[in-house]
Amino acid sequence: MSNALGVRLVHNLTHPSQLVIDLADGPQLVRAVIAARRRSHLSSARHSGWGREAASLIVTGWPLTGEAMTPDEFFARCKAKLLPGGCVAVLLAHDVTAPVDVVIAARAAGLAYLQHIVAADQPPRKGTPTRLDIHTDVLILTRSTQDGGADE
Q1: Is it the case that residue 86 has pLDDT exceeding 90?
Q2: What angle do CA 86, 74, 31 make, to 5 degrees?
Q3: Reading across the β-sheet that carries 19-23, which strands appear in turn?
Q4: 64 near 78, Cβ under 8 Å?
Q5: In whole angstroms, what is the distance from residue 37 CA to residue 100 CA?
Q6: How many Å separate Cα 40 from the centre of its chain?
Q7: Are the beta carbons of 142 and 83 closer than 8 angstroms?
Q8: What does the pLDDT average to over 69-75?
Q9: Each residue of 90-141: pLDDT tens digit?
Q10: Which residue has the higher pLDDT, 35 or 9?
Q11: Which pairing describes strands 134-143 and 111-120: parallel, antiparallel, or unpaired?
Q12: From its phi and psi, is residue 75 left (phi > 0), alpha (psi between -120 and 50) or beta?
């Protein structure tokens, strides 16, 4: 994930008083959280059980590494840790995962598909026939606000 993508996720999917849970590798989201003055359970979230309060955004890499749970269990835990209307941003490995597999596992846990973001490494240049190197695929999943986001 690039620094710019981390900033966009934090600014577009959270409010200043809300919590961000960072389960992704790398410092990009940490920088974005600090710059946006958000509260966070940063990389310690991997070891602390993700904190006690609900978050507006959880960012994770995929496929899961170091998690001793199935995808269904992981997304159920994400749903339990999200505020109603909160989002899970899933950073996909390009050569390993089909986005539909992630969406199916998330739906089984009660999360809904919101959008798929494809972030390019460099912007296209006018007049130059250049292929864009895909930098990151991100699936945005959300917890329903219906019935206050109560578990189904």
Answers
A1: yes
A2: 55
A3: 39-41, 19-23, 55-62, 82-92, 134-143, 111-120
A4: no
A5: 34
A6: 14
A7: no
A8: 89
A9: 998 766 657 788 899 999 999 999 998 887 766 666 776 666 555 678 999 9
A10: 9
A11: antiparallel
A12: alpha
- Rg of the chain (C-alpha set): 15
Name residue 37's beta-bridge partners.
none
Note if the bond before 63 is cis, omega within 30 degrees: yes
Report helix, strand or coil for 76.
helix
Q: 117 φ, ψ to 5°?
A: -110, 135
pLDDT (0 to 100) of residue 48: 58
Identity of the residue numbered 144: S
Structure tokens of 56? 């507006």
Helices (H) and strands (E) in the chain, counts: 5, 6
**Which pLDDT does position 79 carry in this prediction?**
94
Instruction: Classify residue 136 by its DSSP letter.
Output: E
> In the numeric block, which tokens belong to residue 112?
């809904």
For residue 4, name the pLDDT band (cuts at 50, 70, 90): confident
11/124 Cα distance (integer angstroms): 24
Task: Enumerate the H helices of 26-136 as residue ranges.
Answer: 28-35, 45-48, 71-81, 99-108
